[in-house]
Amino acid sequence: MFFGGGTPSLMSPRLVARILRAADRAWGIGEGTEITLEANPTSSEAGRFRGYRDAGVNRLSIGVQSLRDPDLRRLGRLHSAAEALRTIEIASRSFDRTSFDLIYARQDQTPEAWRIELEQALSLNPSHLALYQLTIEAGTAFGARFDAGKLPGLPGDDRAADLWHLTQEVTQAHGLPAYEISNHARPGAESRHNLTYWRGGDWAGIGPGAHGRLTLDGRRIATETPLAPGEWLHAAEAGRATVHLPEDEPAEILLMMGLRLREGVDLARYDALGGPPLACLPELIGDGLLRREGDRLSLTDEGRPLLNAILSRLLA
Amino acid sequence: MTDLAHIRNFSIVAHIDHGKSTLADRLIQETNTVSERDMKEQLLDAMDIERERGITIKANTVRIEYTARDGEDYVLNLIDTPGHVDFAYEVSRSMRAVEGSLLVVDSTQGVEAQTLANVYQAIDADHEIVPVFNKIDLPASDIDRVAEQVEDVIGIDASGAIPVSAKTGEGIREVLEAIVTRLPAPKGAPDAPLKAMLVDSWYDAYLGVIVLVRVIDGTLKKGARVRFMSNGAVHGVDRVGVFRPTMQDVGELGPGEIGFLTASIKQVRDTRVGDTITTEKHGATEPLPGFKPSQPVVFCGLFPVDNAEFEDLRDAIDKLALNDASFSHEMETSAALGFGFRCGFLGLLHLEVIRDRIEREYGIDLVTTAPSVIYHVHMRDGSMIELHNPADMPDPTLVDHIEEPRIKATILVPDEYLGDVLKLCQDRRGIQEDLTYAGSRAMVVYDLPLNEVVFDFYDRLKSVTKGYASFDYQMTGYRQDNLVKMQILVNEEPVDALSIMVHRDRAESRGRAMCEKLKDLIPRHMFKIPIQAAIGGKVIARETLAALRKDVTAKCYGGDVSRKKKLLDKQKAGKKKMRQFGKVDIPQEAFISALKMDG
C-alpha cells in the first residue's frame, strides 16, 4: 500500500486508520504488507508520524530534496535544511524503514559539494534513498525559467555525467547501491510498491488522478480516474470513477520501465506482449551497453546513464 | 482602344521598404480604381512570401483611369517590377514595356544599391524619370540630402522631385499630374503588323497561362491567331483584357496599351519573358530586340526528409515548374539522401522562394544541399564539362583546369562600415575594381567569384553593416582558378551531400570551419565520431565529437508511464527528421548550416 502523489501527510492519522480498515475489510491486508506514506519535512507533519505508525503505516518517504537552504529556496521549497534533518530524526524514532529524496545536478553544484551533502545524507543512516538529477522539462515553470536564461550554472552534459558517476560510487561504498536508475537501498530494503511499476506488475490506483494497471486474460489494462477531486468524488459516489483502457504498446512500456532496474527485464515476456524485434540488440551488447543472460536483459554500468538513447535505438 | 496621346506607361523604382507598394496603393485609391471596400494593403504583391519579404517576384500591373487638371481622361498603366537582383532580366523587360519611371527614395534613408541597379535599367530603357521623395511625414526626413544624393550618385536632375507621404496621401495628386505632364506618351502604329512584348506570364488553374503583354505596334484582338516568335508556337487568343487590378475583358489592345491575353496555353515554359507575339498571318518579320532565354545560375539538391514523400515532391516541383519557366529540375540520386531533384535557380532568393513554397504549400520537409554554381571543367582530352554538382566531379587526374563564374558586385555602404565590407570582399577572393564616395557613403565595386556569393554573402554583408549596406551584382564571365573538390567524412564515411568545390587556398580554413560547425550540429551519439574534411584521399581538417555520457530520465513511476512514453515517441519522431549515415544521425539543417561562414 502506498499513500502518495501530493501531500498525504496533511491527512489526520485517524483518516489514514479508517482507510486502512476499509482496505483490510475489502481485500485483507496480510502480515508484513509494506504500507508507505509520503510526507513533507515540516514540523507540523512530523508531529503526526507516531499517529501514522499507530494507524498501521510502516514505511515513510520524505521529500527532503536538499540539505542546503539556498538550494531549497531555489527549488521553491518551503522547509529548511534544519527542519528536514529534524524530520528525518523524528521519523527514524517511529519507523524502521524511512526513505528520503534528494535532487542533485543543481545550479552551481560542484562534485565536491555534492559529495559532502550526499555523505551527510548517508550518515543519517537511511535504508532507502531516491537521488534524482534535476531535469528541466519543457512546459513546466522550471522549463520557462530555463528558456528565459534565468537558471544559470546548471551542469552541462559532461558535468552531469560526472555527478552521476560520483553518486553511484559514494552510495555503493555506503552499502546503498542503485537498484533502479534513481533509487538506492540496502539489499532487502527496496520499495516493494515501486518495484511493481518497474516490473510491469498490477496495482490499483485509487483517488483523483490515480493511474493503475491490471492484467485481465493476459491483456494489460490501464486505469485512470478524474484529476479534479470534486469530479472524482462525484464519479466515485456514482460507482464510475475508474476508466479502463487497453495499455498502448505494453511491450515497449515493459522494456522502458524494466530496464530501469538493475535486475533488468524478461525478454520472453516482452515477446509474449507482442514487442517488435530489437534490431540493434547485438550491436548494443557488443558496445558493452547491455547485458543478456538467458532471457534477462539488463543495462551495464556503462549503459545505465544512457537509457534513453539506448531505448531510442532499440525501439527505432 | 485608347489613343496614344492619352496613355502613360510607367514603373516604380525603389528599394525594399522605401514605400513602393504603399505608393502604388495610394495611386489606385486616389483614382478610385478599386472601391474602398475591396482595398487592402499592398494590393499588387500577391504571394504570402512576397508580402513577408517585402519584395516582388512576379511583375504585376494595374490600369488606372485619371482625369487630369487639363480636363482630359488618361489611362495610366503601372507595371510593378520584380525588385531583386535575381530577376534582373525580368526587370529589364518590364522597363522596355513602359516609357517612364517614378524613382521612389525614402527621404529618411537615401539611395540604395538595389535602387541604383533598377534606375540604371530605367536609364538604359530611355525612361523619363520623376524622382519621388517618400516618407516626408517622418521627422528624420531630409529632402535636401536625398536630392543631393540622387544627383551625385545617380546623376539625374532632382530639382523636379515630388515630396510625398504615401502613408498620409500628401503629394499623391502631384505624382499623378507629373505622370501625365512629364512622362512621354507611347509611340506606335495601329495599322502596322502586330508586335506585342511578353512582359511576364503565370499559371492560373482555370484559365491556363495568363500572358502579360505590352502592345508596341498593331492591334491584339480577341479571337486572333497569334505566333510566339521565339518558338513559333501558334495559339488562338481566348481573352484579351486589362487589370484594374482584377482582370477585365476588353475586345482589343492597341499600341501603347498594356494588358493580358489567354490562349489555352498549358505551360508557362512555352511563354518566355521578352518574346515577341505577332499575328499568324501578315505578322511581323523581325522580333523586338533584347530577347534571351533565362538561364539558372545557382544549383542545389532538394530531397524529401522522408523518402516516402519523393512522389509528393515530384508532384510539387512539376506544379511549381508550370508557373516558373526560369526554374530547372532533374532527378538526382544521392548515396546519403536518396532520391531527390537537382534544381537550378536564377539566384539565391529564387532558390529560397521555391524551397519555402514546397515546404509551405505542399507540406514537404526538405533537405537542401549546398548551393553550387556551374563550373567549366576542361578535360585533358580537350572536352569541357559543365559541372552543376560537386558530387559529379570527374577524376582530377583527367582534368586539365577548371573555370568558375565571376560577378561584378556593387555595394553601397556608410563609410563607418567600409572596412568590414572590404574585409568581407577580400575574404571571399574579391578583386577591388572601384571605390568612390558620395557624401558619407562609399560605393565599392568588386570582381568576385559567384560561388563565394551564392551562399551567405548577402547575410554576412547585412550583419557586418547592421543592415545599412545594399548590394547588387551582374555576371561577368568565366575565369580559371585553382579549384578543388572537398569532401566531408563523418565517422569515416564520405557524405556526398556535403561535398563542395572550393579554392585550394581556402580549403583548409573552409574545411576546419565545416568540421567545427558539424561538431555542434550533430547531436552526441553513444560513441565518439570523427568528422573530417578531405581533398582526394588527404585529410586537411579534423574534429572529434565526444560520446554522449548521460541521457536518462530521472523520475519514472506508475503515473509517469504514458508521459514518458510520449517523450520517447517524440524522440523517435525527431530521429525521422535526421538522416542516417552508417551509425550516425545527421539533422537535416546541418546540410545548410555547416556551410555558413562566420568570417
UniProtKB/TrEMBL annotation, chain B:
It comes from the Bacteria. Its main location: membrane. Keywords: Cell membrane, GTP-binding, Hydrolase, Membrane, Nucleotide-binding, Protein biosynthesis. It is found in: Cell membrane. One of its GO terms (biological process) is positive regulation of translation. Its EC number is 3.6.5.n1. InterPro entries: EF-4 (IPR006297), EFG_III/V (IPR035647), EFG_V-like (IPR000640), EFTu-like_2 (IPR004161), G_TR_CS (IPR031157), LepA_C_sf (IPR038363), LepA_CTD (IPR013842), LepA_IV (IPR035654). Pfam families: EFG_C, GTP_EFTU, GTP_EFTU_D2, LepA_C. The keyword Protein biosynthesis applies. It is a peripheral membrane protein. GO terms for molecular function: GTP binding; GTPase activity; guanosine tetraphosphate binding; ribosome binding; translation elongation factor activity. Gene3D superfamilies: 3.30.70.240, Elongation factor 4, C-terminal domain, Elongation Factor G (Translational Gtpase), domain 3, P-loop containing nucleotide triphosphate hydrolases, Translation factors. It catalyses: GTP + H2O = GDP + phosphate + H(+). GO terms for cellular component: plasma membrane. GTP binds at D17, H18, G19, K20, S21, T22, N134, K135, I136, D137. HAMAP family: LepA. This is Elongation factor 4.
